[in-house]
Design goal:
The chain is mainly alpha-helical. It is 69% helix and 3% strand. The protein has 13 helices and 3 strands. A 3-stranded antiparallel β-sheet has the order 1-2-3, covered by helices on one side. Helix 11 (258-291) packs antiparallel against helix 12. The longest helix has 34 residues, at 258-291. The radius of gyration is 20 Å and the shape is globular.
Length: 358
């Protein structure tokens, strides 16, 4: 019997529909009208096919440590290669350009990290408090984090750290170890500010703390996003009628700031639907994490939920001016094929766990 979660995937369908509607309204201004929209539909079709493939592929294939380690090493190789041969965007060397489309290896690395941590911690959750397990799991996380920090991609680095911290926390970490991790985090943050962050990244953080200092420079994106969100009011200005998006005052309206574009077009009404759908998805993922009997399934679902939650929280936060701008896409909404494909693969693995559950 085919078993799945109708509420989870209905919420996903609504999110995808919202994203396509907003992208359709924005892409009318493309050099080739609606090119971005058509491209996203192609990405979505490929992603759905990948979702169906992984849904019917028995998730137990990931019990193979050799397969998991191979996937992890493959993602590290891609992260290394992209530093030398990848295209730069906004100062970040994180894309492989293949002409009509590009791909971000960081997305594969996110999924491979969740899988390898779920595998490692699932059999050691009762003794995760031992320092050697924290060290080994932390090493799995630190290597891709270091490669991503060199790109430099501050937002991606944050997500990797959050996934690891979340998974080891629910696996039985002790309070004194939490304090130690916070101290290490503070030291790493200070080191990163002094030696790793580029000037433009420092200026984004400074503009977040002091937004009035440079409204036409480092604070420009933030100001335009807030104008777009505020102009949407209750029911929005209508698809294709938002001045900030249609007149291109709002930068990166199809990707990093699509939440602001959606708020301008559909107002509080559209934003409320979006937030409800995200909450339902997170709720159902937590329910399944508590339902599965296998620790690997529990940790994989929680890790994937943490990834989606952090990406959603940071993207909306930077659109609202509550967080620094770090270049993180809004899951299932922002234009782009890399994150969409990997997110659907992740959901496909979860759906396989639902279908093949005991």
């Amino acid at each position: 019997m085919f078993k799945t979660d109708s509420l989870l995937f209905f919420s996903l369908f609504v999110l995808i529909a919202l994203g396509l509607l907003v992208l359709w309204s924005i892409s009318s201004q493309d050099a080739v009208p609606f090119f971005s929209f058509k491209k996203q539909v192609v990405f979505l079709t490929i992603s759905i096919c990948a979702f169906l493939f992984f849904s019917f592929l028995d998730w137990r294939i990931f019990n193979s440590s050799q397969l998991i380690l191979s996937l992890y090493l493959f993602s590290l190789v891609l992260l290394g290669i992209v530093l030398f041969f990848g295209d730069k965007s906004s100062g970040v060397a994180g894309w492989f350009n293949f002409g009509l489309f590009s791909f971000q290896p960081i997305e594969i690395a996110k999924l491979s990290l969740i899988i390898i941590l779920a595998k490692y911690l699932s059999s050691r959750h009762l003794e995760i408090w031992q320092f050697r397990h924290l060290l080994i799991s932390g090493t799995f996380t630190f290597i891709p984090m270091a490669l991503i920090a060199v790109q430099p991609d501050l937002g991606g680095t944050m997500i990797f750290g959050a996934i690891w911290l979340g998974l080891v926390s629910i696996s039985g970490i002790r309070f004194k170890q939490v304090i130690l991790l916070l101290i290490i985090f503070a030291l790493v943050a200070g080191f990163s500010w002094s030696f790793l962050l580029k000037p433009y990244q420092q200026s984004r953080i400074i503009s977040f703390i002091y937004p009035q200092e440079d409204p036409l420079g480092a604070g420009y994106n933030r100001e335009q996003a807030l104008i777009a969100i505020g102009s949407g009011r209750i029911f929005g200005r209508g698809l294709g009628w938002g001045s900030q998006t249609q007149l291109r005052f709002l930068p990166l309206a199809k990707t990093d700031f699509i939440f602001a574009a959606l708020a301008e077009s559909l107002g509080l009404f559209g934003v409320s639907i979006l937030l409800i759908c995200f909450l339902l998805i997170f709720y159902r993922l937590v329910i399944w994490a508590n339902t599965f009997s296998y620790n690997f399934c529990k940790l994989f679902v929680i890790g994937f939920a943490i990834k989606l939650l952090i990406e959603t929280f940071v993207n909306i936060g930077m659109n609202l001016g509550l967080l620094p701008i770090v270049g993180i896409a809004l899951p299932f909404i922002s234009a782009g094929g890399s994150h969409l494909l990997i997110d659907f693969i992740g959901l496909g693995i979860i759906n396989s766990m639902i279908i093949h559950r005991a």
